[in-house]
Structure prediction request, 265 residues.
Amino acid sequence: MKRVGFVQTNPEFGAVESNLKRALDLASKVESDLLVFPELFNTGYLFLSREEALKLSEGLDGPTIRKLSDFASEHSTAIVAGFPERDGGKVYNSAVAIDVDGDVKGVYRKTHLFYEEKLIFDPGDTGFRVFDLAGMRVGIMICFDWIFPESARSLALSGAQVIAHPSCLVMPYAPKADPVRALENRVFIILSDRSGIEERGGKKLRYHGMSLISDPKMNILAQAPEEGEHVGIAEIDPKLAEDKRVNELNDIFLDRRPEFYVKIC
Ligand code: ACM
Prediction:
């Protein structure tokens, strides 16, 4: 059995050090094998320009990743966390995957950019990735990726037992949709959303919170409220995600008919 969880925070825009500290203080209250932090959890979400994102972004050797890596090894927990990633002149909406010994396994760069993210970030170029973390196969999608069922399906077909879903939800649907994604792929999903309101440069966004952990049969094992900062944990058996059978005659992977899905690609 593994203890997995979300850390729902309400970051203050640009206050990287204090956002990181509050998230890690919350994380240190629980024993876990894997924790998922929200999208762009260290900086906040509402960037007004690409220049601003470039300024607040970091590489994999930056201070945010170093502190997450130290926390992971000190607490023997894997971490998936969203952050703005700089790579040369490019800036991605990324999530880092760190194992229980602090080893940075790599990043996933958001595939489907939402609304004005298209003016700020470069489109992700990693494709959907599955990492070995804390003895689990953990795939990552970021926020708006959820609305494309191909995201969770690609991760499940690549062997993910657990999908980590860092988010800054400005639409209310994902807390209802993620358990369906879990069911149709027979995987666990950890939705880690932020909460609160961001108001900058004449723009205002309200985030939906409601972080949750769903099992492969849509049971909600833990859920946060809409407001506030919360950590939620559930004990799961990731091996349950390897059973794709619905009954003795149906298996959701073996029964697929890709010859009739050609329009998808
Ligand atoms: C979103 O993709 N952050 C809405």
About this structure: Residues 39, 114, 143-144, 168, 170 surround acetamide (CB under 6 Å). The chain is about 20% helix and 30% strand. The mean pLDDT is 98.
